């Protein structure tokens, strides 16, 4: 690691701000491409970060990045089995798929033989090939150690105070009570928020235009009971489940939003409420009051938390502002922002890791092919921005529709199949080696058309205070017909009774 005087003298090809997994991975990739890289971090690792889950798309891209950019160790993190074999000390959780259970106010969870209030969508055929729940504090710290082992210049406790650019960037940074100048030809914002872009670039972010309007309350907990055991104690059959839902991205669907449960191997569980701001406002209510009000409203949800305790880190329930944001631009002369800095919608379908990785792949490919041609480089970045914004638009439609249906699980079930069908189609595109295009096939006229039409149809149905059985049935059949050309998993087949044993493309 360089000294302070060396920083002042050194010229970097690329300076990256933010050492979460995306920033660190980008630094490793650009270093292996031959760039002189500096990674800075305003905090220090290990640090608390929200639990996140991977998906088959994320795993495919991880393997591609590992192969193309000579990071063979990275491939181990693309499957649960290889992760446990190579790095069992880095905490993660087994994620077999997406699980959804619908709850109603004042009622214990109940279902029937046809799983009317349950939906399980497997993303892998077994535990070895499975996705993972990432304990971000562990995984991010591991990647930073890789940065140090690779001798990439890395500085923590370093904050960018200001920046100016003529032929190159000159950053004024503050570290340990000292102002240091850093110089770089290109800057990448991997901070994961909108504050840095606004401060040094004057680029603002806005939630205007988003259909989704949600916020989150979350923390890590110890001693969270297993949902499957709770079901069995209540006499609810689980024998025909395609997997144990505790080993998944577990969604408890409420009228106001949903509760996530991501279980890790060390006994911790990430719990988070994501609530719809279209519901009565919570703005003037304290965080703990909102948490307790929602939890206590649903008896089976209350059972999940009554014996649990907050983990020492972070030791409190954290409340976000509105989750939706999009920067007015995500590239400019000498800079670009990774996807989670450029914008965000909502964690409902675990798109965060995959979207970030797809953005890293896009930017790395642009530099890989055009590093010696500035005109082509910026044409590539212009296309990158267009892709990011169209991807956010598609995700917003898919997620907004989900919130509008949460009070009516049959509608939620039908609507969510648009997401799963779209995801499977994109997985197949990647596995065939086709040009990756836009994340989730946001560039597909077929995909955008069926999602937009279905959203309009959904709005007509939910205008009614209580959608009729006939309306829900017609809408379900409409979705079934619309996804037919890309439905390779039998989604919405009544014979499956909401239990899908393997929906992902063969990995």
Polypeptide structure, described:
With 507 residues, the chain is α+β, with helices and mostly antiparallel strands. The protein is built from 15 helices and 23 strands. Strands 5, 6, 13, 14, 15, 16, 17, 18 and 23 form a 9-stranded mixed β-sheet that branches. Strands 1, 2, 8, 9, 10, 11, 20 and 21 form an 8-stranded mixed β-sheet that branches.
Topology:
Layout lengths: L3 H6 L1 E7 L3 H12 L4 E4 L11 E2 L2 H13 L11 H7 L5 E4 L1 E6 L15 E5 L8 E4 L1 H14 L3 E3 L2 E8 L3 E7 L2 E12 L5 H7 L3 E2 L7 E9 L4 H7 L15 E5 L3 E7 L4 E9 L10 H11 L1 H8 L2 E2 L7 E2 L5 E3 L3 E2 L2 E3 L1 H4 E2 L7 H19 L3 H32 L3 H23 L13 H18 L6 H14 L16 E2 L7
Parallel strand pairs: 1-2, 1-11, 2-8, 5-14, 6-23, 11-21
Antiparallel strand pairs: 3-7, 4-7, 5-6, 9-10, 10-11, 12-19, 13-16, 13-17, 13-18, 14-15, 15-16, 19-22, 20-21
**Shape label:** globular
**Low-pLDDT ranges:** 1-8
% residues in beta strands: 15-25%
Write down how many β-strands occur, each being a DSSP E stretch of 2 or more residues: 23
Estimated structural class: alpha+beta
Q: In the CATH scheme, what's the topology name of the domain at 95-133 and 210-319?
A: D-Amino Acid Oxidase, Chain A, domain 2
Biggest sheet architecture? 9 strands, mixed
| CATH structural architecture of the domain at 95-133 and 210-319 | 2-Layer Sandwich
Number of helices: 15
CATH class of the domain at 95-133 and 210-319: Alpha Beta
* Percent helix: 25-40%
The gyration radius over C-alpha positions equals 23 Å
